[in-house]
Design goal:
With about 575 residues, the protein is of the alpha+beta class. It folds into four domains: about 5-125, no CATH class; about 140-360, no CATH class; about 370-400, no CATH class; about 425-565, no CATH class. About 50% of the residues lie in helices and about 10% in strands. It has helices spanning about 30-45, 55-75, 85-95, 95-110, 120-125, 145-175, 180, 185-195, 200-205, 220-235, 235-250, 255-260, 290-305, 305-310, 340-350, 360-375, 390-400, 405-425, 435-440, 445-450, 455-460, 505-520, 525-530, 535-545, 550-560, and strands spanning about 5, 10-15, 20-25, 265, 275-280, 285-290, 320-325, 330, 430, 465, 470, 500. It has a four-stranded mixed β-sheet, with no helix packed on it. Strands 1-2-3 form a three-stranded antiparallel β-sheet, with helices on one face. Helix 6 (about 145-175) crosses helix 8, helix 8 crosses helix 10 (about 220-235) and helix 11 (about 235-250) packs parallel to helix 16. Mean pLDDT is about 85; it is low at about 560-570.
Length: about 575
């Protein structure tokens, strides 16, 4: 049975991996409600429901116990069958999405196992949820500088730990039994490696030094023995550094790394291996380890070999390390505790880009790994992680940008929108030479180019002509940095907001039209439309029709002059 109901009323969950979790319910104020609650929780346990881990089971029990107390405080007595749709919906309206989901799961499991529920509640279970899920905030990847500092700190801790182990082993080789040859550093190292890991008080007693109850008499020796234990058998700081660096090199979910055992590593070659791990939200998964991640695991296995041979039932746990003490020593297999995530960055001097202590977060490490891999090469899959939908991967892993990158992206978008607006504006075609009239007809151009009366007169007089148009501000082009001459091709003027067209430009405009015709014969339709399409359309549909037919006919005679070298067909 995945879950068992016992007396006094409690639920014992038997979860995957042999995990046993028991929670009492006999202390709830309404025992009829508690009995139905126990039946619903038992029915919602894996493989019949979503309760499959210790943390999920504890959350389900806590939320349902809260519901029992809330309803009792509101005056309700009875079991699940006495609840009305109005009372349940009223309670759901005050819940979060996750609390409502938990209650629905327990009610549905209770109903599926033959429990009595009001028909209206069963109808609600088949319908939509009342509360909407709040979109989670994606884990923010570490910056490149933070990532490099974190990797360097892990490597420094690992190198220091390896050096300490080598020195302790060499010291133990030089030492002998302190009970016969006296107390020295070498002899204490010999004692630790031959009779440890053990409480330091017990080791000193075997050397003939009696423990005084508080360890003050031989305090320095206790400290020295503890340091030798950490060096020989590994401490939690070293195990934590290996754990974090492996996460940075593999990208495996944090809970999968924490629960690794030695049997999960399957050798497939001299430098290749397949690692099996459990992902809490899905199931068992595996991956071909990157070369540098496999080297790190081999390095850790070699480093922990001395402790692993003396760890008993914990020998197959991957991240075993020693917590030495005076009267008691522990072998632990979970270095990635909240306390270590707070203390280790401070000890290593790790800081964020803002100068604050750098928080160590498994989700951020995984997000950064995938973020960096996405920007380095493409794996050939539509998603980096096969368990992600494209939307989840895009929202949480691939589309995160720093504030500077967001500013650059928004700038590109603004430029593109400005180009669209600029191309949609009608061309400026001059029909007179009066400066005041021109300023009245084209106030937008005058304001944008910063023209005064003298500049308008120069524009009308042809002093600022550029092949097919008159340019209102040749040194303030949208196609070049301010203060530099415009480098754009002649036909670009057709869509430029600074260009103004006068009858004197008609011959060159007709030459440009003939140039477009020749290019259209030499290029495919798709090529021509991509390169010249918008400009040819502006010339034929907006610019030339604004001039009279007589002016165009007169200009056509002028345009029939021999072509310039750059106009010759190729």
């Amino acid at each position: 049975m995945p879950a068992e109901i016992r007396e006094p009323l409690s639920v014992v969950f038997t979860l995957p991996g042999g995990v046993i979790y028991e929670r009492k319910l006999h202390d709830l104020p309404d025992q009829q409600f508690a009995a139905d609650l126990a039946a619903g929780l038992a029915a919602a346990t894996h493989p019949h429901g979503p309760i499959r881990t210790w943390s999920v089971a504890s959350k389900y029990v806590a939320m349902m116990r809260r519901m029992a107390r809330d309803l009792h405080a509101d005056g309700f007595t009875g079991g699940f069958g006495d609840l009305t749709p109005a009372r349940v919906v009223q309670y759901w309206l005050a819940c979060t999405y996750h609390r409502e989901r938990t209650i629905r799961v327990v009610f549905d499991a209770f109903n599926r196992e033959g429990g009595s529920l009001h028909p209206g509640i069963r109808a609600h279970l088949d319908g939509r949820r009342i509360n909407k899920i709040v979109k989670s905030t994606p884990n923010e990847p570490y910056s490149d500088a933070e990532w490099q500092r974190l990797a360097a700190a892990c490597t420094e801790t690992i190198n220091a730990d390896q050096l300490a182990q080598r020195q302790a082993l060499q010291s133990a080789e030089r030492g002998s039994d302190p009970a016969l040859h006296g107390i020295s550093t070498d002899n204490l190292a010999w004692l630790a490696i031959h009779k440890g890991p053990a409480p330091t008080a017990k080791l000193l007693e075997s050397a003939g030094l009696k423990f005084d109850g508080r360890g003050r008499r031989y305090g320095p020796l206790h400290r020295e023995l503890r340091e030798l234990h950490r060096a020989l058998f590994g401490d939690r700081r070293a195990a934590f550094a290996y754990n974090v660096l492996f996460a940075m090199r593999s990208g495996i979910v944090p809970d999968g790394i924490d629960k690794l055992t030695t049997v999960d590593l399957h050798r497939t070659g001299e430098h290749t291996a397949l690692l099996s791990y459990a992902k809490g939200r899905t199931s068992a998964e595996s991956m071909n380890l990157p070369r540098n991640a496999l080297r790190l695991l081999d390095q850790w296995l070699k480093r922990s070999e001395l402790l692993r041979g003396r760890a008993g039932d914990l020998a197959d746990q991957f991240w075993i390390h020693l917590l030495p003490g005076i009267t008691r020593s522990w072998i632990n297999a979970a270095p990635r505790k909240q306390q270590m995530r707070r203390e280790w960055p401070l000890e290593a001097g790790l800081t964020s880009d803002q100068g604050d202590p750098l928080p160590i977060h498994g989700g951020r490490i995984r997000a950064t790994y995938q973020h960096r891999r996405d920007r380095s090469n493409w794996t050939g899959r539509t998603t980096i992680d096969p368990n992600h939908t494209p939307q989840v991967e895009g929202d949480h892993y691939l589309s995160f940008h720093t504030p500077a990158q967001m500013d650059a992206i928004e700038g590109v978008i603004e430029q593109a929108q400005a180009d669209l607006l600029r191309k949609a504006e009608p061309p400026v075609v001059m029909t007179g030479e009066d400066a005041a009239r021109f300023a009245g007809e084209f106030p937008r151009l005058v304001e944008a180019a910063g023209l005064d009366i003298d500049a308008v007169k120069a524009l009308l007089a042809g002093e600022q002509d550029v092949f097919v148009a008159a340019c209102a501000s040749p040194l303030n082009s949208p196609h070049a940095p301010a203060g530099t001459p415009c480098p754009a091709r002649p036909w670009v003027c057709l869509l430029c907001p600074l260009a103004a067209f006068a009858p004197r430009h008609l011959p060159n405009l007709l030459r440009l039209k003939d140039f477009f015709s020749r290019q259209a014969m030499q290029m495919t339709t798709a090529q021509f439309m991509a390169v010249f399409g918008p400009y040819a359309a502006r010339l034929d549909e907006d610019v030339l029709p604004r001039f009279g037919s007589a002016a165009i006919a007169a200009a056509a005679e002028t345009a029939a002059l021999p072509l310039h070298l750059e106009e010759m067909p190729r």
